[in-house]
Amino acid sequence: MALVDHPRHSRLLVIGGAERSGPGGGEILRRFVDLAGGAAGELIVIATASAEPAVLEAEYTALFTRLGAGRVRALRLENRTQANEPIVDEVLATATGVFFTGGDQLRITTVLGGTRTDSALQRLVRAGTIVLGGTSAGAAMMSGTMIIGGEGPGVTRAGVRTGPGLEFLPGVLIDMHFAERGRLNRLLSAVARYPHELGLGIDENTAILAEGDSFEVLGTGAVTVVDAGAAADIRVPADGPIALTGARVHVLPAGCRFELSGRRPSIVDGAAGERELAA
């Protein structure tokens, strides 16, 4: 199976949604603030995905400030003209953390894809200059192949709609609100169509902290990893159910880790600490 070159210095906090209202009262967002430098940090909130960006900008600005961020401001990007303005480079130049809110992930990719903003963020993420965070739609857009929708009852070609993401985390497909909205069939449908990608289903109030070639699970839920790399047979007819045999599924709660290139999980055992599982 092909290996993916993950940027060595990148730090991404990818959240499955509902992190503000879930148990723990924003502990995942507190981790984001800490990663971005805490009181010495400068956070940028981008609510491009939202139909009401001003509302989410105000909510997250207040929340990050309450959690100890030194400076928080919004970067309003509602169209491609704004995303290509030179002022974007000035705003991002001093940022230590950038956070994408929820909404519609397709709005993020159509407004930002290939723009000055996209290029600047890619450069900063690869250099490790910023930590990039996103929740719900802001999480989905981080993959190369992005899940846009699809709520069909089975595992079928029509059960998922996909498009190009911004590929901050290559080699994965990300689905959010995973357990709460019963999206296993959707993720299986996507992975069967794109077996070179790892499927990551992230529950609400749950996140992955991806650093370089691996990620750690945070929060109160779990991350479901679907790996079709070793599948014995995959058949995706134009109509009807998909056949997928021999794929691997891992369910990883908080503290567990996963090596992306090697496709190897390691779980936390209360008695023995972290234990790597055979691939």
Care to describe what's here?
- The chain is an alpha/beta fold and about 280 residues long.
- Helices cover about 25% and strands about 30% of the residues.
- The protein contains eight helices and 18 strands.
- A ten-stranded mixed beta sheet has the order 3-2-4-5-1-10-11-16-17-18. Strands 8-9-12-15 form a four-stranded mixed beta sheet, covered by helices on one side.
SSE blueprint and pairings:
Elements: E1 11-15, H1 27-35, E2 42-46, H2 53-66, E3 71-74, H3 80-83, H4 87-93, E4 97-100, H5 105-112, H6 116-127, E5 131-135, H7 137-140, E6 145-149, E7 161-164, E8 172-175, H8 184-193, E9 198-202, E10 206-211, E11 214-219, E12 222-227, E13 233-235, E14 243-245, E15 248-253, E16 257-259, E17 264-269, E18 273-276
Parallel strand pairs: 1-5, 2-3, 2-4, 4-5, 8-9
Antiparallel strand pairs: 1-10, 6-7, 9-12, 10-11, 11-16, 12-15, 13-14, 16-17, 17-18
